[in-house]
């Protein structure tokens, strides 16, 4: 089985490639070929025994997507994106990467396909497609009205994916990922970056900045669960999606204060003392328009699962990233 | 006041230009300049006393939109589109005109604007953004899941319009028009064309083809009401739209059988006898995925109004197109 990962140098892309290398098989078939693509050259996952090609490619550049399509991977994970903060700061780069890149991929499949090649495309969308006036709990039939350019671009990508799937060009499934927490590594330019920072930095004995009020409620899942969603989407019977291939993923609704109390239970007062409040109106403005909680009934019925307690999200980080120990 | 109409050679565009010429003013201001654009050169509306420039322009072609933006119209009606049947038959032309054309317009405004020019953009979207598994009556918060490429392209245009409005690049309002009935003139390549044909042709003493079962329910408004929506949208206080500039327009829900009974009341059995049933699976497939009825509470609260009886829709056609008499 040949799998292409776009955005393979990103946090989720790396973890996904590592998981595939570790699992060896996917849906009962051997993963014998990986094509890993990002704007910076991804690395071969440790222990992968098959053929692995790592490419530095700008998906939106002329001919890039068609070059990938000629390789005819059976499964494509499209995780490549400019994050929310950067897409908000730079309209052009956001639309170029998040919309034009996605469209280039889908069109390359359209043009290359048709003679027995119809790949599955697992698209990472985001709960950021929702925003503005939303109910406390968003159900699966609520209207998508993003309040950021990032959310807009993801919503447009979802529409394209649905149309190209409906036309039989590809087998698409879009996953509206909750905010990933705890993201390992360094802060990024996503406006949601602090949700991880206030857990990750204190667990490593470092100070973290909280740019919003602790009453802010948001929707989370761990990197471990997010990888689980992608793997599940790769093997799910897509006929079960009916005419709506874009799905709200399960997650956990918590306020910042609840995040902090979970941190206190897992790592004690000294970790919590490292969080410093420093309001940032630009971040407040973006995240205040985001969804706070979901009832992802369709995804749950389709077998997608996630953590139900924030303590478990923190423990997943300690186990997966810190070797089980706290600084 | 300088007004640009894109799609000015189309049915709505022509009627809109004629209405503006007749009214002379809009929102208390004199309409002293019209720029009328379409892929074929539009005509100057009868009696218009101001400056009227008629241009044959392909909006999606290189530099076309920016050429129009340099004219800095205060109000833009963007009605230009490839219709549903053609967009379904030809993926490339549909995306080029309906998505790329809209994006080119919005980007041209972004690049030209910023020094005191922020035009109002009234965008004609469509109830075709809804589809698939929908409730009998769709409310204003129901999810948009189009089941045609046309509906997809309109939904994507709406998202762009909302994002560019939110950013302050333009003042956008998107109107999801019901199926316009009775469309004057000849059948077009819209899959919805027969909804008008089965009224229009018999009123003119000609045979009409009905390609679907008469139990099909659909959502209608007259050309007269549609022009009323556009005019109302041009002067409405847009602050009242909040964070959702795209609106379901009012209309009238009727089955094909109810359309036919209204025709019988207005024009008698001899008109109804001219309708010939000839099922067309391609048309059935497209229109069966469309919405059947709406509760457009937001639009009604904002002052948009439409007919409430199908007889009135037929009478509007007889008055506006047939000089008040039936063949």
TrEMBL record, chains A, B:
CDD domains: Gne_like_SDR_e. The keyword Transcription does not apply. It comes from the Bacteria. The keyword Signal does not apply. Keywords: Carbohydrate metabolism, NADP. InterPro entries: DenD (IPR050005), Epimerase_deHydtase (IPR001509), NAD(P)-bd_dom_sf (IPR036291). The lineage of its organism: Bacteria, Pseudomonadati, Pseudomonadota, Alphaproteobacteria, Acetobacterales. GO terms for molecular function: oxidoreductase activity. This is SDR family oxidoreductase. Residues 3-209 form the NAD-dependent epimerase/dehydratase domain. It comes from Lichenicola cladoniae. Pfam families: Epimerase.
